[in-house]
Task: structure prediction
Amino acid sequence: MSDASEKNLLQKLNRTMMGKLLIIAVLMFGFGYALVPVYRAICEVTGINLLTPKDISAKELSNTQIDRSREILVEFDANTQGPWRFRPVQSSMKVHPGEMHQIVYEVVNQQPYQMDAQAIPSYAPQQAAQYFKKMECFCFQQQTLGPKEARQMPVVFFIDPAIPKEVKTITLSYTFFDIGGKTKSAAAAGVDKS
Result:
């Protein structure tokens, strides 16, 4: 065989191989693309890994941990130890155990300088403390309020459905107190900078 015919045969084999590899690559891409709908179809037929059926209404998907057979009155209270105005935006609400709720407390620093504060919760009756679950609360960290600053601070909570049936009312009380981080401005301190 001559070099030219050997070279032509080699080029023909290379083109054939390239064509086969391109066909395999296209088939692999198509197979990968088709896997998702095939997987969903198999899951629907077998009932495996079916997260939510298509015809369930939003009402049926509601939280099943909520005890709708009873209500608990939650009263909100606020106390201060320092120069603050501090209060809940509403004094009480009725809740079902297991149901998520939010209450907002308002605080105003009445001083002409920045102050640091902390809120400490307390509960009545005392046994309610272990069932009152706060997801978000301003009491989790210290608060720094600027001069004359007003702020609304949320508390997101639920009451554990395991709370004893005899508990009908819970009082959540916060004491908001100065922790001594005063930063008086030059004007408030009476300092002349000239």
User: Anything to note?
Assistant: The chain has a mean pLDDT of 82. The domain at 72-178 is CATH 2.60.370.10 (Ctag/Cox11 (Pfam 04442)). The first strand starts at residue 72 and ends at 81. The two ends are 105 Å apart (CA to CA).
